[in-house]
Amino acid sequence: MTRNVTALTQRELMTSFYSPVAYIVAAIFLMATGYLFMNSTLIEGNEATIRPLLDSMSWVLIFAIPLLTMRVLSDEFASGTIEALMTAPVTDVEVVLGKFLGVLAFYLTLLVTTLVHVFLLLRYGGSDLPAILYGYVGMILLGCLYVSVGVFASALTKHQLVAALIGMGVLCLFSLVVDSFASWKGGLWRSVLSYVNITHHFQDFSKGILDTKAIVFFVSGTAFFLFLAVKMLESRRWR
Amino acid sequence: MIRVQNLTKMFTDRKAVDGISFSIEEGEIVGFLGPNGAGKTTTLRILTCFMPATSGHASVAGHDVFSDSMSVRRVVGYLPESTPLDMNLRVREYLTFRGKIRGLDRAQRESAIRRVTELCWLGDFIDRPIHQLSKGMKQRVGLGDALLHDPKVLILDEPTIGLDPTQIRETRNLIHLLAKKHTVLLSSHILPEVEATCERTIIIAGGKIVASGTPNELKERIRGGSRLIAEVSGPNAEVKDALKGVSGVDKVETSADDGWQRVTIETKRGTDPREDIFKIVKQKGWSLRELRLEVGSLEEFFVQIVAQQMAEQRAARQEARS
After folding, report:
1. Model-level pTM?
2. B52 touches A at CB < 8 Å
3. What's the CA gap between B211 and B198, in Å, rounded?
4. CB–CB contact B80 A87 (8 Å)
5. Are B264 and B227 in contact (CB under 8 A)?
6. How far is it, in rounded angstroms, from Cα B98 to Cα B207?
7. What integer best gives the mean pLDDT of chain A?
8. In this predicted structure, what is the pLDDT of residue A61?
9. CA angle at residue B65 from B155 to B199, to 5 degrees?
10. Nearest CB to B85: which of A4, A7, A81?
11. Residue B162's beta-bridge partner residues?
12. What is the pLDDT of residues A63-112, one digit of tens each?
């Protein structure tokens, strides 16, 4: 189990580093967050906190991560390599986990490069170290959830673009749309819809709060979408 | 080594494989022959656990393909039809990855890669990215991958498609070499291919097995329609009459050629009147410069059965419609 997942993760990471898409997405992500950081935090008179950076990163990632994950299964379906993969002694769960961890590793590399903003904050602004730390814990958990949604979207189709759009759609739904739905409805609907709101939970972290409820939300959400991805992969066999 | 019983695969709109049964013993090299769309790839995909059958049973090396899929995957080396490979990786990286998921440790992997590099002539491009390779090179990488874990059973789907004649010959030699250690099942829609490599042929058309046996057994089955060709010098009508009188001769046709009569004789099933023909020619005082038996080729046989099968299916469909 572990050996197969490690092998699949390594291959996924290797493929990411060979692919121009990953570099372009990484460059645009850094450009966008850098611009937002400059315009919100690096302006005289504005608060020197990590929060605006984290919030803006969480928005940019809604579009960046589906572009990183769109390839993982869709390309296997389109090129037929899925046949070589699924006739080797690996299980569907191992394949999905390997894909997930591979893209997650690339995302973490990307996240490390954003530490340059943190360095600027610490050098020139205040230094609320726990808030920064919790914020980055939140970023890691957020990344897990986004990547799992992206892997699930990629399991749905052999068209990479469709996978990316579905991923973005699902993430927009759970970050933005549920919020306005919740404000229209009352009662039980309201509490359900505000519970599944990603932004709502993420803001705990960006405010510098380490809340178990939010951790449980991200971990269970990730597990749920990975489970769906495994089921989708299994179901292809029956068609 | 491979057992298939009543295997059927339904897709939403059609039956791709229709209740086929066959078995392959250890060390055999068997060709799976059929026109495009006959159900070859589907059968191989079921045997390699890529897709489940709708009904029926199949097992490889004693393991059921459905209930014990992981054990089957461990003993099978499979080369899929279009040789799908990871285009972004280099050949060595790809084989290393494949070795890892086959459960080979570092030392085993290195020796396995050395072995297949030599066996499949990968040496010249082992460190090149796969997307740069030609079709033939990719085919060899795919074959190398299938052999990496030294599998008991080798399943090759159209192993020589898209190769040039030299590569085809090299691949055939390689398959012959492999057949000593492995049980081989290969598919093809090209008959000489199967005739050249396989000890036994299973002919499949429209999802059903229409014939099976060694190339000679299959040829035997069409001997009934064999013909004799003779060239005799003598008057046309007399030659024709004399030969018609020989026992075992069914039909005689002649055509004049430069003073000689070229005679095509259809014989009755199971008879060989060559000796009698010689005797009568000698008795009449004519000369004979050619007398040979023309056995129908496997090719003709193949075309015949497939056409027959298609016609039956068309008839069945029409019946169902009316």
Report:
1. 0.84
2. yes
3. 15
4. yes
5. yes
6. 32
7. 90
8. 95
9. 35
10. A81
11. none
12. 999 999 999 999 999 999 999 999 999 999 999 999 999 999 999 999 99
CB contact under 8 Å between A80 and B84, yes or no, is yes
Structure tokens at B273: 């009147």
Q: Would you give the end-to-end CA distance of chain A in angstroms?
A: 27
| CB-CB under 8 Å, A80 with B82 | yes
Distance CA B153, CA B138 (A): 21
Phi-psi region of A187 (alpha: psi -120 to 50; beta: other; left: phi over 0): left
Tens of pLDDT, residues B254-275: 888 777 888 888 877 767 788 8
Q: What is the pLDDT of residues B223-253, one digit of tens each?
A: 555 678 888 888 888 888 888 888 878 788 8
User: Given CB atoms, is A90 within the 8 Å cutoff of chain B?
Assistant: yes
- ipTM surpassing 0.95, yes or no? no
Least Cα distance to B286 among B228, B236, B229, B227 occurs for B236
Count the neighbouring beta carbons within 10 Å of the beta carbon of residue A65.
30
The DSSP secondary-structure symbol of B295 reads P
B250: left (phi over 0), alpha (psi -120 to 50) or beta: alpha
The one-letter amino acid at A74: S
Q: Which residues of chain A neighbour B45 with C-beta distances below 8 Å?
A: 83
- A27 C-beta neighbours (distance < 10 Å), count: 10
B15-24: strand order across its sheet: B15-24, B2-10, B55-60, B63-64
pLDDT at B70: 92
Helix (H) or strand (E) holding B71: helix B69-75
Please name the residues between 52 and 81 in chain A that touch chain B, using a CB distance below 8 Å: 79-81
Mean pLDDT of all residues in chain B?
A: 85
Nearest residue in B to A17, CA atom: B88
Q: Which contacts (CB < 8 Å, 24+ apart) does range B264-271 have?
A: B264/B227, B264/B228, B264/B229, B265/B227, B265/B228, B265/B229, B265/B230, B266/B225, B266/B227, B267/B226, B267/B227, B267/B228, B269/B223, B269/B224, B270/B223, B270/B224, B271/B247
pLDDT at A162: 97
Q: How far is A216 from chain B (nearest CA, A)?
A: 32
Contact (Cβ atoms closer than 8 angstroms) between residue A78 and residue A175: no
- Which of B11, B65, B73, B100 is the best mutation test for A, with the most CBs of A within 10 A? B100
- Our separate counts of H helices and E strands in chain B read 11, 14
> Which residue among A19, A84, A88 sits closest to B84, beta carbon to beta carbon?
A84
